[in-house]
Amino acid sequence: MAGKYFDEWQVGERVAHDIRRTVTETDNLLFTTMTHNPQPLHLDIEAAKASEFGQILVNGTFTFSLMVGLSVGDTTLGTLVANLGYDKLVMPKPVFLGDTLRAESKVIALKESKSRPNAGIVTFLHRCLNQRDELVCQCERSALIKRKAG
Fold first, then answer.
1. Which SUPFAM superfamilies match (predicted)?
2. Which residue in 43, 134, 139 sits closest to 94, CA to CA?
3. CA distances from 24 to 14, 64, 114, 149 (A)
4. Domains and their CATH numbers in the chain
5. pLDDT digits 0-9 by tens, 73-122
6. Each residue of 25-81: pLDDT tens digit?
7. Could you give the C-alpha distances from 48 to 39, 55, 131, in angstroms and in order?
8. Cα–Cα distance for residue pair 91/139, rounded to 1 Å
9. What CA–CA distance (Å, rounded) separates 143 from 74?
């Protein structure tokens, strides 16, 4: 198990996630159609070329989901009880087909659970950067995480 227990985290702790992902046309097309998002910027090359971006724009909810997914192995894999919420989501730069994304996380808060003595709440600041080290997505994730047994 790669995830850490609530009692193993410290505020200010940082993790640079090793897995990177180059976004493909298939990723964007499948995610966009799977989620029934008809936005021409994601699906129509001619409409995208005519936009201010001049090319297909990767679906922002894919970028968000990828950022969280890249973080799971190092943060909550096997220790998560439930994700409680995602806050302050921003996407300051666009993502394009062929961009390679990486993620990093920082623990910004720890809170005892009042209703579950066997778990606590860890709040992560997740950041996603492209191959030019530009921030393309960021959010805070609150996760209910198991305490270490014994």
1. Thioesterase/thiol ester dehydrase-isomerase (SSF54637)
2. 134
3. 28, 15, 43, 41
4. 6-146 (3.10.129.10)
5. 999 999 999 999 999 999 999 999 999 999 999 999 999 999 999 999 99
6. 999 999 999 999 999 999 999 999 999 999 999 999 999 999 999 999 999 999 999
7. 10, 5, 22
8. 9
9. 13
